[in-house]
Amino acid sequence: MTELDGNSLAGDLAEIFARDMTAARFTCGGCRHTGAVATLRVWTPAPGVVARCPRCGDVLLRLVHTGGSVLLTLGTTRLEVPR
Amino acid sequence: MVRAALPGRLSWQAATVSAVREETPSARTLILDIPDWSGHLPGQHLDLRLTAEDGYSAQRSYSIASDWPGDGPVEITIQRLDDGEVSPYLTDVVQAGDQIELRGPIGGWFVWRAAQPVPVLLVAGGSGIVPLMSMIRDRGRRRARQPFRLIYSVRTPQDACYADELRRRVRDDPGLDVHFVYTRKAPDGWPAPPKRIDVATLNSHGWPPDFAPDVFVCGPTAFVETAADILVALGHDPKKVRTERFGGK
Amino acid sequence: MGIISRGFGGRRRDSAPDLPPGQYLTHDFPVLSAGPTPRVPLDRWKLTVATETGEKHTWDWEQFTALPSEEITRDIHCVTKWSKLGTTWRGVSLDTLFEDVETAADYVMAHSYGGYTTNLPFEDLLDGKAWIAYEFDGEPLHPEHGGPARLLVPHLYFWKSAKWVNGLEMLVEDEPGFWEAAGYHMYGDPWSEQRYQGD
User: Fold this and answer.
1) Is the distance from CB of B99 to CB of B15 less than 8 angstroms?
2) Which residue, B45, B197, C42, C157, has fewest beta-carbon neighbours within 10 Å?
3) What is the mean predicted confidence (pLDDT) over A3-13?
């Protein structure tokens, strides 16, 4: 169990968005805290990658690699991106 | 086979380890020839993917240690984590001539851009030095005028990566200042007993908050949180303190 | 492309004939976690079963550990591909817990301290198939492994065995939990390799 930060999401998010997302700003739906994606707290290894708000701990993002795709869940919305 | 990468699309490719260099008893630099490398900024990383014969694969992200003069190899430095799965392979098994799959460069936030005119404070815990070394090398190559200060926390003098190079750079470059913090064992004649990074260290060897420096802190999670908390308490703008946490202890 | 890395073995792993497909044997006990480990003092710990009509049954630690418990020895299978054979636990069977609970619901959402959730069919929790475990290997369950108490449903992938469990909510309709909403399988049978939605 390792706690990392949003810098570690760079590769997985670049795979989906085809650009760097660590400098993108998030706004937490729970506490309205804003910051760079790089500052999120990231938990791995779990069945997927979980990124939480550094202030309130709410889950902002979940990332799951299946055999053929990457699933990115932001809040309750899920994107399935073929690899 | 000619494979045109989609613009902006991050693709896996095979790189060749052209040489290895031991940095400390537990850290090693891999020098990589990457056929299709678009160039990187100091602070960026790359993802490595290892695949065993039975198809089992493991992926890790490593900071790039070298700067990018426009061509040539790319260097990463790996610290061996004894209970690790990938790092002991990279520090003990890989040899020149081996192929490794990678993709990159990645990351755009924990990055120093030479166009930023303000002084820079670098705070490294252990192998957190790696991306900061890329910044120091980039500054050196550009002969950039922003003054840099590095505070580098290591357990013992033997654990310091790039020690000779840092000494040489400090000697030749009045704009670079390096201060070591020893947490377990200090060199003979060192004026202070071993200690962890603290308010006094960051106060005396960092920049005053009034200078509004760009601050980069990299290391294990606990180290990064301690250093960042102190910096903010000293009056640095939290937005100017960029952090990167490493896995492992 | 998948080039083979010369001499790379990865974490030591064995195959064994009686493992579900795609699983490797591990001898240690990997810790997987989606967030910080909650530290729950026993004098504040509670377990609540809430039925679909809103009726609630609550146990504090003293009441819960006074329930008849049993020793359980089972193999466990994690969706990240490790399996561990013959793990030994002590816990309260859900048959015991549900003795006085009246419900007609077919599904359960397990809730945990820290906010984790996972969904299961109710019938998979009954007839000696599931427990709330509070000891592992004869010791109080360590917080990293889900202590004070975790759900134990060894016939499903281990993400269904919610750590730090504090509630079971009866549902008339199935709903996805934390990993299920992020693309994992709604049921999670290791023998059919139901890892992801669509498997």
Assistant:
1) yes
2) C42
3) 93
Domain spans, chain A = 6-82
Q: Count of H helices and E strands in chain B?
A: 5, 11
Task: Give the C-alpha separation, C72 to C91, whole Å.
Answer: 8
Q: Where are the beta strands (DSSP E) in chain B?
A: 13-24, 27-33, 45-51, 57-63, 74-79, 99-106, 120-125, 148-154, 176-182, 214-220, 241-246
Cβ-based neighbour number of residue B56 at 10 Å:
16
Q: Is the dihedral of CA B175, B181, B187, B188 positive or negative?
A: positive
Tell me the C-alpha distance between C113 and C166, whole Å.
6
Q: What is the pLDDT of residues C49-85, one digit of tens each?
A: 999 999 999 999 999 999 999 999 999 999 999 999 9
Q: Do C5 and B89 touch (CB under 8 A)?
A: yes
Sole residue written with tokens 């060897």:
B205
Give the integer Cα–Cα distance in Å for C162 and C143: 12
DSSP class of residue C62? Answer: H
Bridge partner residues of C196 (DSSP): C184
Point out the residue among C5, C11, C13 whose CB comes nearest to the CB of B51.
Answer: C5
Query: What span, in angstroms and rounded, lies between the C-alpha atoms of C53 and C31?
Result: 36
Please check whether residue B106 is in contact with residue B61, taking contact to mean a CB–CB distance below 8 angstroms: yes
- What are the counts of helices (DSSP H) followed by strands (DSSP E) for chain A? 1, 8
Output the six-digit token pair for A30.
Answer: 């729970």
Interface test with C, best of B51, B59, B60, B78 (most C CBs within 10 A): B51
CA distance B76 to B45: 9
C8 interfacial to chain B (CB closer than 8 Å): yes
Write the pLDDT tens digit of every residue in B223-249. Answer: 999 999 999 999 999 999 999 998 653
